[in-house]
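Subgroup meeting minutes
Present: P.N., E.W., G.H.
Scribe: E.W.

1. P.N. recapped why we're keeping a running log of single-chain structure predictions: easier to compare across weeks, and new members can see raw inputs and outputs side by side.
2. G.H. added today's entry (460 aa).
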Amino acid sequence: MKNKIIKILINFWILLIAITFTGCNKQDIFLNKKPNAALSVPETLSNFELLLNNEALFNAYDSPALGNLSADDFYVTNNSWISSETVAQNVYIFAKDIYQGSTVNNDWNTPYQQIYYCNVVLDGLNKTNVIPDQISRFNTIKGEALFLRAYAFYNLVQTFAMPYDIATASRDPGIPLPTSSDINKRYGRGTVQGTYDQIINDVNTAAELLPANLSSVTKACKISCNAFLARVYLGIGKYDQAYTYADKCLTQYNSLVDYNTIVPGRNALSSKILAEDIFHTSLNGYSMTSLAQMDSTLYKSYDANDLRKSYFFRTATSGTGLFFRGTYDIHNNKFSGLATDEIYLIRAECNARSGKLTTALNDLNTLLKNRYKTGLFSPLTTNNQDVLLQRVLLEREKELFMRGLRWTDLRRLNKEDRFKKTVVHVINGVTYTLLPNDPKYAMPIPDQEIQLTGIPQNIR
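Output recorded in log:
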């Protein structure tokens, strides 16, 4: 049985190397020569589970990081920039052509590999005659596939499409949305609105099928569905819905870690999975990310008694600059997953925006009390809605540093005049700027994808 499973995985890997979701002559030639098709199509619940249990694909180095490199919460030195990958260099200076002929882009390829795996499972389940005592298992597998597909779609639309604007979302180009494992089907880009509709529909369906509670931080459940929907709705500025799902999540699961109880390592916040972790993923690994240094203005905003100031950052070996070590990933990757601290901040922001200042302050103070040295936190108080909202947004920057979420925040907050911000990066004495709502808030789709599919390229 073990050898058969290995053969299945090998054949799937071969297919994934050749696959794009449109089909072309080169693919047809390759597929005509593929090994025995019976080995490349899983048919049992065990094999479907095996595909979705691929943590190397779904949980490690899986989230696009190009937006993270374009954001404003860290900088790199000239030497660090020079030693980084060409794509990372170009993204950091907001270049028009970021690929320069490169044919490998994991920010695009990895999510679509995830989507393909999920579609293989979903298509296979549709052909499976499930016996009554396996219905729960069947539903869990289907729910996981839908959740993981939606998670990949969301990461892609945050990177390769313009920010959501309610006035234009129904016509703004979205991303290709493969919902079948048939490699001969062709998919256009659709719209931004259509993309978010697909994401939300997938997650809502998944929530009806998945178990209620966490079994593992690498597996989805109803809690992770509610957390993810809170993130999605916040990202498109629909704050009533974001509140609804943040509240549902925290009603089900609200654990926070008292930072006084942990000892940070050199490159990670803890050597153990933290109780705040709801669904675990990490950012695609660019060397520039590991070389990033903390923005001094943001660093100074941490209070002296705030443990995050010393727990999240360490002094460089050279004695110059501050490197981030506050990741929730025990393998030292940059955590990009869902955690309760983010959900507390989402609920606090939504309450602040709706004028519910007392409940917003309760969430903010609950979080911060667990971040300060024992007995040294003074609860925040204010009757000013704008002041409170500004503070919540600042705490998002401080708490969610280097998770890839700052890029989404810039995209959504630029839609409000009071929060618009110009991102500034300086390399070799040259200043590069990214203006609010600039077309460069959508990364270019890889050149080979444009050539193979004919889908329209993003304007840069």
